[in-house]
Amino acid sequence: MPLTGIEIFKLLPKTNCQACGVPTCLAFAMALAAGKAELAKCPHVSEEAKSKLSEASAPPILPVTIGTGDKALKLGGETVMFRHEKRFENPPGIAILISDKMSDAEVDARLKKVKDLTYERVGLTLTANLVALKAESGDAAKFAALVGRVKAGSDANMILISDKVDVLAAGARAGADKKPLLHAATKDNADAVAALAKETGCAVAAKAGNLDELASLTGKLAAAGLKNIVIDSGARTVRQAFEDQVVIRSAALNKKFRALGYPTIVFPAEMTNNPMKEAMISAMFVAKYAGIIVLSDFRGESLFPLLVERLNIYTDPQRPLATKQGIYEINNPNENSPLMVTSNFSLTYFIVSGEIENSKVPSFLYVKDTEGLSVMTSWAAGKFSADIIAPAILKSGITDKIKHRKLIIPGYIAAESGGLEEEMKGWEIMVGPRDASHLTPYLKAWKA
What we know:
Strand content: 15-25%
CATH superfamily of the largest domain: Dihydropteroate synthase-like
């Protein structure tokens, strides 16, 4: 049973040091009880208190890791029902399904999709990060061979799917060093799969026919000492699967029902044969509230929108989506190409860079970190002024890339042109258009 805020407060050091970012220890205790803070933020809590508070300080949806190293997939850790309340923590994994009945050529083709369907957006790399290997043949040796083939041909994390423990065990042992997710423990094989998960150190998926059975099953796995648990409600219709996702999330967050406090896995691949309908179902589960989404195949026209949706939903609503500061080369610029500067608000960057691309004029665009604010907002806030822009550009290394000393600034900050000329001795400051849509004719008239 989770501890109350007062019970947690009694175990805290009561120094009110504010190192945790909260004004008082009592307020921190209340935040811990509500699952909105982490115990690790308190630098003075004793080891004895840590052990007693471990359950109370754990998020309502327990965190789970699949895989190893830098590319390990982290799931769960969620603390809110709705993104605007705080933020969603760990984006769902998106998996492509590969069967051991597929030919080697088809397996290789699907692994190639995992590698090739990668996209750059706002300075981030968007990609799927899982392959779900299904033992449809029922042959342990064949399944183990598939696991070995995928392990050698891809660095993606793996889900191993079989309803036969011996087949699952063969796959798990073949890929043990990759720490795949074992799907699935059921009421009939829970003891055997739990033992296999402990032996290999793999995460395990618990699958049941309904939520009551699922809660009983996760309790059994937890009692066996397993912590990395993913849950599958067993629903394979859209309506029931959606209802289960909402009930699981609500039970864990609002009712503090620990037996359902785990990330989930859903299978749109088993809910329809229509690729576009599958994409629509998957989009729903990105928002509500899947931890892993298994697709029948990857198609660029549907995967990219899903990755963008995931990016948008799993960004912090309290922090603007921002582009990384630096020099961006557009249309293969040379030493005589124009140099422009803008803020790092992602929408600003995409609009400006898009217009530059459309102009076909080779250009340099320097993106200044303005804490994700637009040009006008950051200028008004004192984050995009001459004394900030000038040192950043002069230290950026752009002078090694261009022969001229001309800088084009957005028309909205024309008032900074005089200050920039003082800060950047020998430079000509040119005031560009206020609206990015006017960049094309402006750039076409450019002369170094």
